[in-house]
Amino acid sequence: MFQSQLKSRAKMKRRQIIPGFGLTFGLSLSYLSLLVLIPLSMIFIYTSQLGWDGFLKQISQPLVLAAYRLSFTTALAASLINLVFGTLTAWVLVRYSFPGRKLIDGLLDLPFALPTSVAGITLATLYATNGWIGRLLPFKVSYTQTGIVIALILIGMPFVVRIVEPVLQNMEKEGEEASAVLGANRWQTLIHIVFPKIRAAAFSGFALAFSWALGEYGSVVFIAGNMPFKTESAPLVIMQKLEAFDYDGATSVALVLLIASFLILFLINFSQWLSKRKFADQ
Amino acid sequence: MSIELKNISKSYGSCQILNHINLTIQTGELVALLGPSGSGKTSLLRVLAGLEYADEGSILFHGINLTDAPIKKRKAGFVFQHYALFNTMTIRENIAYGLKVKSRKFRPSKRAIHEKVDQLLHLVRLEPYGERYPSQLSGGQRQRVALARALAIEPHILLLDEPFGALDAKVRKELRQWLRQLHRQVKMTSLLVTHDQEEAFEVADRIVIINKGQIEQIGTPSQVYEKPVNSFVYDFIGHVNRVRGTIRDGQFINGNFKIPVENTGSTDGIAFIRPDQFSIKAANGHAANRAWPATITHIHPAGSVIRLELERQDDAQSIEVELTKREFSQLSLIKSQRVFLEPKQIKVFAADGL
Fold this sequence. Notes:
The complex is a heterodimer of chains A (282) and B (354).
Chain A: H1 2-13, H2 21-48, H3 51-59, H4 62-95, H5 101-107, H6 110-113, H7 116-127, H8 145-170, H9 173-181, H10 186-214, H11 218-224, H12 234-243, H13 247-279
Helix pairs in contact in A: 2-13, 3-13, 4-8, 4-10, 4-12, 7-8, 7-11, 8-10, 8-11, 9-10, 10-13, 12-13
Chain B: E1 3-12, E2 15-25, E3 30-34, H1 41-49, E4 56-61, E5 64-65, H2 71-74, E6 76-79, H3 91-100, H4 110-123, H5 139-152, E7 157-161, H6 169-186, E8 189-194, H7 197-203, E9 206-211, E10 214-219, H8 221-226, H9 231-236, E11 241-248, E12 251-254, E13 257-260, E14 267-273, E15 278-282, E16 292-300, E17 305-312, E18 318-324, H10 325-331, E19 338-343, E20 347-350
Parallel strand pairs in B: 3-8, 3-9, 6-7, 7-8
Antiparallel strand pairs in B: 1-2, 1-4, 4-5, 9-10, 11-12, 11-14, 12-13, 14-20, 15-19, 16-17, 16-19, 17-18
Helix pairs in contact in B: 3-4, 3-5, 4-5
Organism (chain B): Sporolactobacillus mangiferae
Protein name (chain B): Sulfate/molybdate ABC transporter ATP-binding protein
Pfam families (chain B): ABC_tran (PF00005), TOBE_3 (PF12857)
């Protein structure tokens, strides 16, 4: 016990080669605390004043539950679609060269750069029943869950592509060649060699897109129509509760979203750690 | 299974990688493709494996034309320089991969695969490592796994692309001997690409010297070493001293030094002399026109041969000489001593293109 204490102290005291650790560490820690840790913990503290019962009562209101269900299902649908098409897009961008490749690659960042309200208005106009695309479709898109999913697909698109792309770029061609020489066909190579290598990256992209979609407000608000129980998502409920000065309700709803984000982040890191521990080259 | 390459050519854009390669490899032979980097040796191997296609020419495996056959049909075991093991699979899974991806009709039973993997693990002496992942093995072990994996599909031929290039000198030497031994056991037609002449000489039955996409010489190691057909091979194989001069009236002339040669006509020439083809004489009296006066600038006494560096007095060219320990002690040479250097064997090539 005593010895281990001594050891850990020796570790702290060890000379640093790069100077300025104390100063930079202190600065970034206080910066992080001010902007992230304190505001986030405020939600916990504020909600904890309600007590379990109060909290459960807040989040079990039918309106809130419907909003959660809507948010989670639309976010899941959108990020699953993004997972498939994002991986495909990354593959096309990395593996083939064709005219306009750079342009498409650049355009992919647009959903990040675009103000979400602009995206929302654009989609709402396009997919309205008399809009350019909405007119052609046999089913209604705007003011439905389909509309929300489309908006979420748009804003979450870059995640999977941007995370899978570098992994594909760094992937040695030799692995696939080895597989081919050993007699595997294209599909077998894809399933046994390529997918296991991009699985972790694709999963992180998916999880990030999911948690991003879960809290998306700007683009959803225009296309959703915000009908209670039908197209009102969780962030919208928070907004409405705030407008009605119902801070207890707003923070309770927010806390659940916050915990969901934490869980997702934890899952991403855990899965990456798992795959690194097993396969990574030391 | 014999391999026959006929007139293979390949180019990338304007760059000719392979230029009309003709080569026959007999069943059970181990042939080394030796050449400097960028000579096209790896491209040739990849064309053979089906990883790339030749623009022209044909490839015959045991008389059957497989020029345009897909990779699978060729049944070639390929060993990559950087192992190319599947990191997400254990060693056992790596070795079994080629068997597992076979179509159901040809796939052995699970038990048969397991037994086959056991055999191969034994063959490459890695029995205790079957359940590990490639990242947990050393470079030498990984390359042995790669070899076992290539052998699992019972290939007709074995292609090795600089298999020991990424390993350190000691492991490389061990693996070379092991590969030689393995080849004696399985007697598989094998083609080894290397830029390391020592490796080629130690392992191969025959050596193919390749340069700029062309074959310069094919022969046994001793043929290639003793009788290089042209100045490139002379230069590339072993250490060699090059002396520039002119060829005139059937003689190679460099300063006062004259030696009769077969070449006729008058042109610039280069004489090649191996370091062990010199006799050193004490510098008393006059230098004959068969020897160069030189000064010893350095003596490397380590090893089974003594290496000397000398500087010619007439034009300050540096010359490398190797003596046996006995010769060296008989002569009792010291640094800065002046001696006469007489080449015992000399080969002169016309200097066109050099």
